[in-house]
Amino acid sequence: MLTISQLAAYAGVTVRAVRHYHKVGLLPEPERDRSGYRIYNAAAVVRLIRIRTLADAGVPLARVQELLDAGPEEFAGGVQEIDKDLRAEIRRLQDTRSRLARLAAGEHLALPQSVVDYLDRLRGLGVGERYIELERDAWIMIAAQVPHLIDSVIARKHEELDDPDMVRLYSFFTGEPDWRAGDPRIVEVADVLERLMIRAVEAGEVGADGFDDQFVALMDSTMLESAPGAELVLAILEERGWSGWTRIERVPADRLNTELPPS
Amino acid sequence: MLTISQLAAYAGVTVRAVRHYHKVGLLPEPERDRSGYRIYNAAAVVRLIRIRTLADAGVPLARVQELLDAGPEEFAGGVQEIDKDLRAEIRRLQDTRSRLARLAAGEHLALPQSVVDYLDRLRGLGVGERYIELERDAWIMIAAQVPHLIDSVIARKHEELDDPDMVRLYSFFTGEPDWRAGDPRIVEVADVLERLMIRAVEAGEVGADGFDDQFVALMDSTMLESAPGAELVLAILEERGWSGWTRIERVPADRLNTELPPS
DNA sequence: ATGGAGGGTTGACCCAGCGTCAAGGTCAAG
DNA sequence: CTTGACCTTGACGCTGGGTCAACCCTCCAT
């Protein structure tokens, strides 16, 4: 007759594991001696070894139960199913690995390559790092929101950058984004922006963009929070009958100055 | 400004996950509105997306923290280390798979092929299934106890089976193992056994066997528990100056009937 | 008989990464 | 005013045990 530690030693497991198997019902609780110690026989050793063999083979404890009591057919079936799970888990980890590799290669977190290229183009235009970070954060959100559209959206952005006015616009953003009211650049930026907007409207490029209204509002509020100058530019443009930032719209004349957009 | 569920939706995570990230300090707790609701801004969306990106890539949350705040070099280093962990985990699962495959192929739990073959040979001799199970359980314990010796032990057993007396011995075990006192086969078995023992002693095959005493006692007690006839056979053999079962020994004449082995 | 060593016992907290109630407060709309 | 959707904190569950804590039992030497 064996004590729990002897049993555990014979089966090559820890005492704690044996008690755990008792608790989950894998190994029946044996008799106790008069002092309360569990006393085991060889049958327990055998059962415990079989449990260990299955558990070491990757069988979840919950399934060890069924497999131990199963006939050869159910046993084979169960083993196959467990192998299927293992294969799936391995594939999952391999997917994870390749994602991790892409992530390390791209070196820009949560951004597809096309966006990284676009940001590099902005850098090439002399745009300051602080503005780049603002853009980057916006693109992170856009990429998360509409991952299937991101490449086409970026393509359109590249086309827009072929317009000299757009290049001129970005050339304003070389320093820190802390413009104050009265900065002469603000009106200049508004002028350039208005020209761009007019051209966009004429080209019929204004309309459904695939984003929902809330998301557009979120993007706008981010810009306004991060760049104080943006608010001033927006104010000028609103006087001239434009509203929006992420998504530009012509405001009908009769609504001007009567219904302000929620800030 | 966003509620927690809007934030979660933008980042593609669950509300519960967001709160979890707050608890573990990955995402700073934002301001609350007057009713206690958390209110988020776009910066939180961006940070949450970056957290998700890393977490989805298999980075443990504890490490996401460092990676988010790390420069490009530490980032690359951290990613490499995580990849190493992933590779190790994949290899572990693959090992598990092959073990599982061997287990399914062997179809006999916790037994090496050599033992399965040996049991098949016994079956071929007409030994009953119940006895086979007794043998099998004993071999499970032996294989667990001395896995490195199991093949040589089995080889010796095969040699023993070349002895016609051993075949004769096993030929007794074709039915149920519930022999009662008075069964004439008991004496016959004892006779055969004694002849085998004598020959083993003469061949010098008795002695150190690589098992410890406790283990031998355990094996003996199993046999005695499972097969009532074994006890009777043992009694006869003890009268004739033998002791042990798993490990046979000549008892010196002066100890006969004075010191019985503990049952 | 007594003290210490070295077993044993139950119970409870710990790890990751949340899912899932529970029990109640808030908000917007009809 | 009610309803239903959403928010809050808190706590338990899952896997497979590891690691104390606090106390009991047995054996051996003194």
Describe it.
- Two copies of one chain form a homodimer.
- With 263 residues, chain A is an all-alpha fold.
- The first copy, chain A, folds into two domains: 100 residues, Multidrug-efflux Transporter Regulator, Chain: A, Domain 2, CATH 1.10.1660.10; 148 residues, no CATH class.
- Chain A contains twelve helices and two strands.
- Chain A has a two-stranded antiparallel ribbon with strand order 1-2.
- Chains A and B meet through helix 1, helix 3, helix 5, helix 7 and helix 11 of A and helix 1, helix 3, helix 5, helix 7 and helix 11 of B.
- Chain A binds a DNA duplex (30 and 30 nucleotides) through helix 2.
- The strands making up the biggest β-sheet of chain A line up spatially as 1-2
Strand content of chain A: under 5%
Q: From N to C, what is the helix and strand string of chain A?
A: HHHHHHHHHHHHEE
Computed structural class of chain A: mainly alpha
Characterize the quaternary organization of these chains. Answer: homodimer
The number of E-state strands of chain A comes to 2
Mean pLDDT of chain A: 85
Radius of gyration of chain A: 33 Å
**Shape summary of chain A:** rod-shaped
The low-confidence parts of chain A are: 256-263
- Biggest sheet character of chain A: 2 strands, antiparallel
| Largest contact between chains | A-B, 56 and 56 residues
State the end-to-end distance of chain A. 80 Å
Number of domains of chain A: 2
Helix share of residues of chain A?
Answer: 55-70%
Structure annotation, total helices of chain A:
12
InterPro entries (chains A, B): DNA-bd_dom_put_sf, MerR-type_HTH_dom, MerR_fam
Organism (chains A, B): Streptomyces monashensis
Domain HTH merR-type (chains A, B): 1-70
Keywords (chains A, B): DNA-binding
